[in-house]
Amino acid sequence: MNDVFYQIHKPKILVVDDIIQNVELLKAFLLPMDYHIETSFDGEDALAKTESFQPDLILLDVMLPKVDGYEVCKKLKSDEKTRHIMIIMITALSELENELLGIEVGADDYLTKPFNRMLLGARIKSLLKTKYYNDQLEKAETVISSLALSVEAKDPYTEGHCERLSKYSMLLGQRLKLSPPYIKALNSGGILHDIGKIGISDTILLKQGPLDEKERKIMNKHSEIGENICKPLHSLKLVLPIIRHHHERLDGTGYPDGLKGDEIPVTARILQIVDIYDALITKRPYKPAFSQEKVFQIMDSEIDKGWWDKEIFDEFKEMTHNKDWTENPPIVKVQSE
Q1: Tens digits of per-residue pLDDT, 273-316?
Q2: Which residues of 163-200 are buried (b: 16+ CB within 10 A; e: fewer)?
Q3: Is residue 197 among the annotated active site residues?
Q4: Which of 41, 124, 210, 242 has the fewest C-beta atoms under 10 angstroms from its C-beta?
């Protein structure tokens, strides 16, 4: 094939069927297309082969020994490491409920035997391209996240800050019953919220004393810079409001847009609560690490000024007072030198 996609990446396909003649038929069909082919004859082996072979796509029979195809698909699609593998279920079961079950367990396509070869070939090619582009997006996100962590690494006092924010905001989002896409956005937002600081001079970023007015205006640009860095990636669409608006205040005195109240996205309001908490409870160049009691006193006073969301803060306080948090708080305090 002369497609650029196949020049860059030779896809790997795992063929799973308990009937050897079916496996050989599919292999004979696929080999001229220049794919890497691996085979398996039962569900248990298919799961093991997936781990070792790491296929881009699986042609999966339903009626398999040991573990059936539905269960194989369900397990792979529920695992973070394998959920992006494309799965086409190919089966003699033609009832509508069988196809619906395949969709429910996460199959990307469902064909009944006997299948049309041209149709199967077109669907394989389409799904492999989707897999490739999804992988490229994930790599781009990884690079951006690495850039964000490199900004954090410049300052030893903020070590672990981004990871803690990801954890805290996800826990708080779950407590507030946000839907999974927004929980995922909070996870990424914790890492990426300050990525715009990569565009701020180190003389300002690492200044030991307070910033003057000019320096503060430059520093305040980091949320807009961060949004512009991440905007090209559609996969970060729900993260952009967190990056741009996590320094807004409910009374409209925040930046960059002076939003008020519910104009501020709930995900940004969640992240700003945990961001302030982590900044206060850890040691920084301009302050010692405060006790949790003092942190909450400070934050309560700022809520009285109309800065932060009281309902979200109250939920956060409840969350930090549970037994797991009290006995093993997910805090990594920066030690004094």
Answers
A1: 999 999 898 887 667 888 889 999 999 999 999 999 999 999 99
A2: ebbbbbbbbbbeebebeeebbbbbbbbbbbbbbbbbbb
A3: yes
A4: 210
